[in-house]
């Protein structure tokens, strides 16, 4: 997980992939391997409050503790060292540095974890124990984090979790949730990536725990790690962990090509990240179908579109029919381009024979089937068999630019007169040849 020089000293480099709790990090190697090796590190000599497990409740300040560490470290490059292990519980303990900052010291200084002076065995202790104890005493005196002395602060820090988060996920009323929120962006935090196109997420602020499907991607083996490490693997599991474990009990099957790569692609972008979910529908098994948008700099990206563009997922007609026409068209266009470039899933793709012809500097006839904007239309080419994905051609009117329509899923409003420009064109061209 690092250079030989770093390995000789015991220090390794990696990137934080997930943060299961306020004292635990999943760190993956910075390497070209796909997916890369990873380790789950519990911070030496620290004990953070525990999040709710099945049928239970959070310990006071557990969520705040986890969130502090998540926001501090997720996606960041760190240096770490394993200092001791406890084989009986399958855990490794160590120190983690973010730049020149000791992560454990940052956590303790803000009051989000207790310091444990000695483990059960000699040597099970952080080499930075004296400084950790000093910072803990300082946090106590200042009433920081879990040492908050305000009346009712401890009780107020405990989440009021719905049944879907700590009990049977079948208690979730998927149809009711869809009816109340269809097409409306909802904030969430991704707790698990089941595969490239399926995530399990807390919807905020109610903490409904839901599974959301986007597009179809290659399957992976059921025993693949799913990015959610348990700090106490022998304790009763949370709903998220129980759902993850249920996959491991199924029969092992051979993985599809690029299944692991698709899952890793999604984990890098959304695992333990804040996302926006736009629900589109529910399938016959009450699984939620929706779009997932994750931040990328100042903009937001559509996870399904990114997967399809990179040849790691397929366009699926039945679920795409729940989406708006423009979103469907983008996915279909992305898949056609991935096929053309023979990316990953489409490495051995052979296009079917077609009667379509290139139209460079040529005329063609067809029917206008959609008006996208004031300067863009979709025309069904008469020379291509009806129903073929290649039949519809996007035509942009040359030498003009109309106001953009915006994108409600990305909170982009239409430019002034964008709707009027599209309506002007629609009333004159739709269904005409």
UniProtKB/TrEMBL annotation:
GO terms for molecular function: nuclease activity; RNA binding. One of its GO terms (biological process) is mRNA catabolic process. Signal peptide: none annotated. GO terms for cellular component: cytosol; nucleus. Residues 220-242 are annotated as: Disordered. Residues 10-149, 184-348 form the TNase-like domain. This is TNase-like domain-containing protein. It comes from Liquidambar formosana.
